[in-house]
Amino acid sequence: MIVEINFINVMRKHFLIAIIALTFSAAHAQGKGVKVGYIDMDYILEKAPEYAEAKNQLEQKAQVWKQEIEVKKTEITKLKENLNTEKVLLTKELISEREEAIAFLEKELLDYQQKRFGPNGDLMIQKATLIKPIQDQVFNTVQDIAERMKYDFVFDKSSDMTMLFAAQRFDLSDRVLRELTRAQKKDQLSKKQLKDQEKQDALDDMAAENPDQIERQKKIDEKKAAREKLLEERKLAAAEKKKAMEDRRQQLLEERKNKNKKKEDPKTEKSDDIVPFKTTDKKASDSTVTNKKAEADAKRKTAAEERQKLIDERKKVLDERRKKILEDREKAKKEKEDALKKKTEENKN
């Protein structure tokens, strides 16, 4: 049976290799390339939160079964020790009966071990039952990515298909994990957060497909941010200038209104020969104008300081946000490099 299964697996490999070779030949004849990617199912399952929970449940069951096996082993060991101790006092028939009973218990223990931990045992069956829904999610996600990004083939590195070398840029495992995580958190995220996540995923896909493209996009984003900042500064300067002109116009209107009011007020009308009173009114008017001008200057200065403070705060927030984005990108890049290094070492081993 095992030989037959191995033969089927070998034939399946050869058949798959033949199909791939024919596809490459046809693509070469038509003058177009074949787009190939791969995943590491074991890596994806280890990183998937649902797999960790299913694995924990399975380990708890396996622990219970192991305890039951240990109890049976202890019981058999105790029976053997008792038999060895009492052997000199027993007849051959009794000794034979006890040995048969011990042999029966040992066979029963072996059958129980096979039932729980054998190739077709409960552990393997329940493991397949728990993992299958997660594997189905992975397969569906891989199909979506392959159709969206027009891959011709996507292999599983952890399967029976032997891969002697695979470049990191063709590894879709992290991309599959991102989409699985996003699907799990879909109900918890707002529309804006989902949109931002999809935008970030698109950037990551673009970086994986073309590493130079992310640098170009980064420069474009920096130029766009600088242009928006310049436009904002010009807008603030124009608003400040407009406010200054409005304040000046308001001041002139107030001065004209006060002058007309004085002309119309009969109490302020004096004869031309009373010079001291005219001099006093002129000084009072000049003092009022000076005070209003000082107040207007103080207001403009305060408004300018507040605007400058607002500009500085916005600049600080933008700098912190840009710094955070760069740190996140560096962190993601380092994690990918570490993962690649780890996989390379594993392949060497």
Automatic annotation (TrEMBL):
Signal sequence range: 1-29
Q: Which Gene3D superfamilies match?
A: Skp domain
Keyword Transferase in annotation: no
Task: Write out the coiled-coil annotation as residue ranges.
Answer: 48-115
Known InterPro entries for this protein?
Chaperone_Skp, Skp_dom_sf
- What does the UniProt keyword field contain? Coiled coil, Signal
Span list, region Disordered: 187-220, 254-349
Record carries keyword Coiled coil:
yes
Basic and acidic residues: compositionally biased ranges: 187-202, 254-285, 292-349
- Give the family this protein belongs to, as stated in its UniProt record: Belongs to the Skp family.
Name the record gives this protein: Periplasmic chaperone for outer membrane proteins Skp
What's the source species for this entry?
Flavobacterium saliperosum S13
